[in-house]
Amino acid sequence: MLEQMLVQVLLLLGATVGVVLLFQKLHIPPSLAYLSVGVLLSSNTAGPVVSEEIVSVIAEYGIVFLLFTIGLSFSLPQIYALRHTILGLGTAQVALTTLFVSLIAWLLGFSPATSFVIGAVFAQSSTTIISKQLLEQNESETRHGRLGTTLSVFQDITAVPFIVVIPVLGVAAAQEVAGALGFALLKAGLAFAIVLIAGHYLLRPLFHIVAKHRSAELFTLTVLFVSLIAAWTTKNLGLSMAFGAFLAGMVLGETQFRHQVESTIRPFRDVLLGLFFVSVGMLFDPAYLPDIWHLALASSVAILMVKLLIVMAIVKISGVDIQTSFRTGLLVAVGGEFGFALLAVGLEGSVIDTLTSQIVLTAVLFSMIIGPFLIRYNHSITSLLFQTGKKKLAALAKPDGAVDEKPLKDHVIICGFGRTGQVVARFLESENIPYKSIEIDPTIVKEAQLAKQPVIYGDTSDADILSAANIEAASLLLISHNDHATSLKTLIRAKEMNPNIETIVRAKDETSAEPLRKAGASEVIPETLETGLMLVSHSLLALRVPHQRINDYITQQRTSRYPLIRELFKGKSDIVLGKYEDPDTEKLHSVLLDEGSPCLGKKINQLTLEQKYAVYISVLVRGDKRHVYPDKETVLETGDVLVLFGRPEQLKSAERQLIGAEPSDDDLSESTGL
């Protein structure tokens, strides 16, 4: 039994990987790839079959985590702030589309319950297709782009009451629908109160305690536990699991942990949601296609036109120009993934029959195939129909600040809001330079947010957290924390997301600084070396050395990457402590020139140590005198000591040339102390 299940899981995963790779190469939305896998592996088609029970049980959690993520994006304060614009437009679009399509379906002979499900399914739009297509054609920040994206996201919220209502329609008799629906809404209100109260008194303190431990595993477990316990609560109240997850997400969306929670849940959501689309694809029966394709195609075209006209009308009534209203309608007309979720709920509750569900499912699929082309050519279609010039359309497509908050641009991202990060932030604030900071300490984040400072909670090396800080549009990344491993991961991820960004990174010493430079850091500030410079500066000031000369010393050392401070003798104790085990670590090494040395009588510049081995002479000791950075014309004599600076292997080669023999390992690990 277990072996058979493993074979089916491997078949499912293998087919999914192959089809998704193919669809991505063809630039087709991944949701259609998952649907295709479901069709291929269902019992309705020839070939290998995967048990629908296995997929459906797992797939239900995809909707749970999707609603949880949506809840994170729509906290109560955000919904309240948008009540006059998007809330009104979104409600009108969903309500009018559902009502109009339901009325048409009822006139065609469907029952009121079935008609309602059909209307609810067709009212949904694909946020994935809309946002992805707009991003590809650089229209995500235009007015119609913002309106279309926000309306589609709002539809995802309206799916929550639909998920509550549709099962009731299937179990109640016609005369009992009102009472059953009222009872369901009452339970929904009770669930909302439970999750809201629990969130305020339990969830926030819980996440604060968990975040203090700075354990990614513990944080992930907590996120999974909270989302699933909320889903279990609403399920036991007779409501959908997805509704509870949405409420939990909405509560956490008001906390400083929102971005990190969203980043943590995303891998689980994406995988399980993909399996949900696979389960929907299994509902599609190609055997019905010859008989229903014309009905499905006609329904698809009809719903595209209905949604286009409804959205255009309500956006125009809200005060937006006719061209932008039409372009917004073209975006929202596409069918949506949540329509599949509602259709699955309707089938499970016996609200809609198999033949009707096949027609509706195929119609939504057709609209999702046609929709991307409407979005891609929305400019040309609008220009053709309204005879609007390109310049005028470009002017109308300006960003709409009233719809969404303008994202940060050319700002500074501070990774780590400890003492160093806060000092930098103060100076940036005094110069009116915008910044966003990322901090993993929940106490600091809480205090900073209370002070209205732009700080978010999260792991700086997480791509989603960097994206939340709008890394793509930032001009400077400052990594100020002292966690070397995290700094390196953050730097690598940031350069992948924005290759042109300037980066300044704090490091402990020169040993940890070198990997950061190799990873692309524009500037690395070694903490211990800077401390040494400050000690030098204050010491020279105390000794009455002229201020300008001190500044020259400091500037020269910084521009030359701290040569005097980096040139250190390193002994066996350093190696034992594990500080300098890296073969690329530079160090000082002293070489005594005895009578047999082949370099005696030669000038320093004739040795060409820098060109051959990247080793240079830091000090020449002759008698009792030290000559720092000796003259290149100096002729070497018996008894001279050359203090070399370079990497261990190169030092060996240089010493071999100087003394004419192979140096021992002890020679390189022990310095003469000069």
Automatic annotation (TrEMBL):
PROSITE patterns: RCK_C (PS51202), RCK_N (PS51201). Gene3D superfamilies: 1.20.1530.20, NAD(P)-binding Rossmann-like Domain (3.40.50.720), Regulator of K+ conductance, C-terminal domain (3.30.70.1450). Residues 575-660 form the RCK C-terminal domain. Keywords: Antiport, Ion transport, Membrane, Potassium, Potassium transport, Transmembrane, Transmembrane helix, Transport. Residues 663-674 have a biased composition (Acidic residues). Residues 655-674 are annotated as: Disordered. It is found in: Membrane. It is a multi-pass membrane protein. Residues 409-526 form the RCK N-terminal domain. The chain crosses the membrane at residues 54-74, 86-107, 151-174, 180-203, 215-233, 271-289, 295-317, 329-347, 359-377. It comes from the Bacteria. The keyword Plastid does not apply. This is Monovalent cation:proton antiporter family protein. It comes from Kangiella japonica.
